[in-house]
Amino acid sequence: MSTHIAPRPRSLPQPASRARSGPTPSRPTSSSPFRWNSQRSLSQTYRPRVASLPDAASTQAELPDPSAWAATLARAIVEVVTGARQAPQLRRWLLPDLYTALTDIHLSPCARGASAIHVRVCSIDAQHTEAAVIVATAARIYALALRLEEYRGRWMATALELA
To answer: Residue 105: what are its φ and ψ, rounded to 5°?
Structure first.
């Protein structure tokens, strides 16, 4: 005795399509909620306020480790955009235009206990570094891409992408 299972007929009416508010193939979501990039280099943006600056060799020796620094900055950025940290704490480490743009971003508040779980740094030259940082919170994981440039013996973020 053999039993044959026939496919189910498609005689049921399909529900009427509803207007979608989410992403569709014709209307994808943006890859990141925040992207900012300066078209100018930091050396073109800022002019030194003092007549003489230390030479490049002594300035390079004072720069902190870009990997640890990028991890700390990325964590602080996530805390600012989620409301767990006050934005003025980042003013010294971001270009003014980047700082202004970042203060307008408000993501869901969930950054308590944020920590950098992965950092990858690519040094372009002695004064330029790019970093990718993954920051985890209790409710979400954020990916950040940063461009860091040396400015007066410290790192300054000149480009940022947050997803």
So the answer is: -90, 130
Whether pLDDT at 76 is above 60: yes
- Please provide residue 10's backbone torsions phi and psi, each rounded to the nearest 5 degrees: -95, 55
Q: What does DSSP assign to residue 27? A: B
| Crossing angle for the helix pair 66-81 and 96-103, to the nearest 10 degrees | 40
Whether the pLDDT of residue 123 is over 90: the answer is yes
pTM reported for the whole predicted model:
0.66
User: What does DSSP assign to residue 126?
Assistant: T
Going through the chain in order, the beta strands assigned E by DSSP cover 34-37, 115-125, 128-136, 141-151, 154-162
Strand, helix or coil for residue 130: strand
Helices (H), the chain: 42-45, 56-62, 66-81, 96-103
Q: Dihedral (C-alpha) 30, 72, 114, 28: value to the nearest 10 degrees?
A: 0
Side-by-side strand order, sheet with 128-136: 34-37, 154-162, 141-151, 128-136, 115-125
Overall average pLDDT of the 91-99 stretch = 94
Classify residue 60 by its DSSP letter: H
Phi, psi of 21 (to 5 degrees): -105, -10
